[in-house]
Amino acid sequence: MPRPDIPLLLEPExxxxxxxxxxxxxxxxxxxxxxxxxxxxxxxLHLHPGNLxxxxxxxxxxxxxxxxLAEIFSYLGLSPEQHVIAYDDEGGGWAGRLLWTLEVVGxxxxxxxxxxxxxxxxxxxxxxxxxxxxxxxxxxxxxxxxPIAEVEDILPRLGDPDFQVWDARSAPEYRxxxxxxxxxxxxxxxxxxxxxxxxxxxxxxxxxxxxxLRRRLDQLGLSADKEIxxxxxxxxxxxxxxxxxxxxxxxxxKGYHGSWGExxxxxDTPIEV
Length: 273
Fold this sequence. Notes:
Helix content is about 30%, strand content about 15%. The protein is an alpha/beta fold. The chain folds into 2 domains: about 10-120, 3-Layer(aba) Sandwich (Oxidized Rhodanese, domain 1), CATH 3.40.250; about 150-265, Rhodanese-like domain (Oxidized Rhodanese, domain 1). Strands 1-5-4-2-3 form a 5-stranded parallel sheet.
């Protein structure tokens, strides 16, 4: 959770006020290197999106090792009491992955800039092109299993009325017409809402109307009274699903970091088409 004085979901104007004030948040740009070089929020540090995943086949989306995580947060100069504000250039997938990772390492102070760099530019706010660097820190890594879903957490809960799975992939992937893994289909009972449906392309990649989204989630069975696991191919797209549920104050949500890269390449996992 964010600090009480900084909301989890920030609009560009709110962030501009924070930067101008005395809050001194740690700004992290999780855009492509090219887009960071072409212009970013003043003071923002760049984190390559690929650093947030382990990169080991067949499930490259799994968490990096403890040492790599320590290097990431030390590179950002982060200390446990600092507030992180993350944004990206795609509408929240990579920023969501960073915030989920912060939750995993027990860092509760964070926010997401609604719409990322596109919304910031849309608001007519200042851009800089210089590369920023932080003084390295010695960030303590202590893994919190609460936000993490593994195969062993999902299998015994399939069919449980108090449990649901959100498949954030495209409809063709969900239907088994396309797959990034050896097997195609989806986790039995999973509900499909493509992560792109959470992003308003006509509003500078800000999130869609959250009240309407909440009603849709409830109607589909992805309600806050259930434990919900979200997944995609590598827990990149589904990190936005996790973030949206976090913003909507869902009490029990997990990210399946192995995602379809793992599930679809195993022989002991059930599949529905």
